[in-house]
Amino acid sequence: MQEPIEEGLAKITEIRDSDLKWDEKIAEAIRTHLIIWYDYYGAVFTTTSEFCIDVNSGMGEHIISLLNQYRVVIADIIQQGIEAGEIYSDLDPKIMFLGLLGMCSWMYKWYSQDGPLSVEEIARQFSKMFINGIKTRQLPAKP
């Protein structure tokens, strides 16, 4: 799991530091996460379904550290949206990250390469669901 997590962390850090708007960053981070998940499907499936990492070992501690860094980067993007007034401020960025990670990671249970949707299309739909779920709604002005 080290290689896909490190690759994902590097890419989402670049996304976080880009000039994109927060919602475009989230969509691109989800797409990146799922593309990496797909590219490393065998390792990700085995580790996710078994979580066979000894968290008390040196490697386990390293993986947990990488996952914490991953969380911080996504939480930073979410915080950008909160500061822009476009994400509900009463939602906890850590909980939003965990929900997003859970949504993406659960794909190992149901995804099929022969299924009707590509990873890109699933990423698009996940992005839309997640972003629209945390985005504040602007009510139309009353006449």
Q: Give the % helix.
A: over 70%
List the helices and strands in order. HHHHHHH
Mass-distribution shape? globular
| Structural class computed from helices and strand pairing | mainly alpha
The assigned CATH architecture is Orthogonal Bundle
What can you tell me about this protein's structure?
The structure is a single chain. This protein has 143 residues and is an all-alpha fold. 71% of the residues lie in helices and 0% in strands. It has 7 helices and no strands. Helix 1 packs parallel to helix 4, helix 2 runs antiparallel to helix 7 (119-134) and helix 4 (58-83) crosses helix 5. It is globular and about 45 Å long.
How would you concisely characterize the structure shown here?
The protein is mainly α and 143 residues long.
SSE map:
Blueprint: H1 2-16, H2 22-39, H3 41-50, H4 58-83, H5 93-105, H6 107-110, H7 119-134
Helix pairs in contact: 1-2, 1-4, 2-4, 2-7, 4-5
